[in-house]
Amino acid sequence: xxxxxxxxxxxxxxxxxxxxxxxxxxxxxxxxxxxxxxxxxxxxxxxxxxxxxxxxxxxxxxxxxxxxxxxxxxxxxxxxxxxxxxxxxxxxxxxxxxxxxxxxxxxxxxxxxxxxxxxxxxxxxxxxxxxxxxxxxxxxxxxxxxxxxxxxxxxxxxxxxxxxxxxxxxxxxxxxxxxxxxxxxxxxxxxxxxxxxxxxxxxxxxxxxxxxxxxxxxxxxxxxxxxxxxxxxxxxxxxxxxxxxxxxxxxxxxxxxxxxxxxxxxxxxxxxxxxxxxxxxxxxxxxxxxxxxxxxxxxxxxxxxxxx
Length: 308
Prior knowledge:
Layout: E1 8-13, E2 21-27, E3 44-48, H1 58-69, E4 73-77, H2 98-111, E5 116-121, H3 123-133, E6 142-146, H4 152-160, H5 165-180, H6 188-195, H7 200-211, H8 217-224, E7 237-242, H9 250-255, E8 264-269, H10 291-305
Parallel strand pairs: 3-4, 3-5, 5-6, 6-7, 7-8
Antiparallel strand pairs: 1-2, 2-4
Helix pairs in contact: 1-10, 6-7, 7-8
């Protein structure tokens, strides 16, 4: 994306006194860097990737491009120790890290615009739903959440099952590589215990939960599962999920009475996988990716209905 659009790297210190930093990729509105471009509409969109992703994940890039071409400014956030931010944090990211999201939103509102939309994917989609259900001071006009693991314990059970074996091995291997690198502020005994984890549950129990300040993994899953916060969401939001998602179990989605949450629109597709949503290329979708259109059409509607 940096090859096509001007990009500025920003190092943002977290507010938790750890000394950790977040690496942000800032793509300013096209009209600010190129003549005869579509005028800026005054709004910034914050994009946040999923587990072991980065600001360069395909969905971050494709949605970011679509947003820029529609007149928005874009900030692509790397979670702690992800992407170009690897080595800048002693603590790992987690599914309920509201403070980091708050830090980035405060930065965007101070530096770029008070009008902000947020779009989270996968693990960060859970974080976004939790964040806006916590009844925090209003700082965002609308949001989207794509492929959210609504119930972290049941999503963990699914990945740890035979059906999720491929993704379990993939994610565990990359997360263990980071632990083995020594980037985290943990002792050797803890490191070795974490590296011997055979399941997602054990990894989160030995590593993610205690470093996030929870007594155990079950407290972490219970506290951070976004399904508990849906009723508190007071701003417009779009939640997108695919019925064939191989990471997040669809039966959890179907158990939710979405009609009870009037501020949330939902899109459930039969195909799309996990933050994939790819079809054969067509004139409307040259790259075959149709998620950017779904999300940006929603944000455009909210921009107009909210008179932003």
